From TrEMBL:
<dbReference type="InterPro" id="IPR051404">
    <property type="entry name" value="TA_system_antitoxin"/>
</dbReference>
<dbReference type="InterPro" id="IPR010985">
    <property type="entry name" value="Ribbon_hlx_hlx"/>
</dbReference>
<dbReference type="InterPro" id="IPR031807">
    <property type="entry name" value="HicB-like"/>
</dbReference>
<dbReference type="InterPro" id="IPR035069">
    <property type="entry name" value="TTHA1013/TTHA0281-like"/>
</dbReference>
<protein>
    <submittedName>
        <fullName>Type II toxin-antitoxin system HicB family antitoxin</fullName>
    </submittedName>
</protein>
<dbReference type="InterPro" id="IPR013321">
    <property type="entry name" value="Arc_rbn_hlx_hlx"/>
</dbReference>
<dbReference type="Pfam" id="PF15919">
    <property type="entry name" value="HicB_lk_antitox"/>
</dbReference>
<feature type="domain" description="HicB-like antitoxin of toxin-antitoxin system">
    <location>
        <begin position="17"/>
        <end position="78"/>
    </location>
</feature>
Length: 120
């Protein structure tokens, strides 16, 4: 079993979301269920998040709760195969050609743009 300091040194991903209704920011660690906090500014939210992570890990260690390892980008190749209708393939190829970029770059742009819209 790892020590508290070993867990604190692991690269747990922090997510920061603006709270548009209440104001301030909500911060969570997706790999540590229920570990979240907030702050009036991003700086205070991040500081509070570090404290929340430490408290979460301390409690888990004291209670013998299994602590998940952080998710890693190493687990993802960055590639997947996608089948699509020929008409969509043609439209994407034509749009990417007009933009002067590869179809791959154009599709990554579209996916990132859509993902950003749904993240908030």
């Amino acid at each position: 079993m790892k020590t508290l300091n070993e867990y604190l040194a692991l690269p747990y991903r922090m997510e920061i979301v603006e709270d548009r209704e209440e104001g301030g920011y909500v911060v969570s660690y997706p790999d540590l269920p229920g570990c979240l906090t907030c702050g009036e500014t991003i700086e205070s939210a991040v500081e509070n998040a570090r404290d929340a992570k430490k408290a979460w890990l301390e409690a888990a260690l004291e209670e013998g709760v299994s602590i998940p390892m952080p998710d890693s980008l190493e687990d993802y190749s960055g590639q997947f195969k996608l089948r699509l209708p020929r008409s969509l393939h043609r439209a994407l190829a034509e749009h990417s050609q007009r933009e002067g970029i590869s179809m791959n770059q154009y599709c990554v742009y579209l996916l990132a743009k859509n993902d950003a819209l749904h993240a908030g």
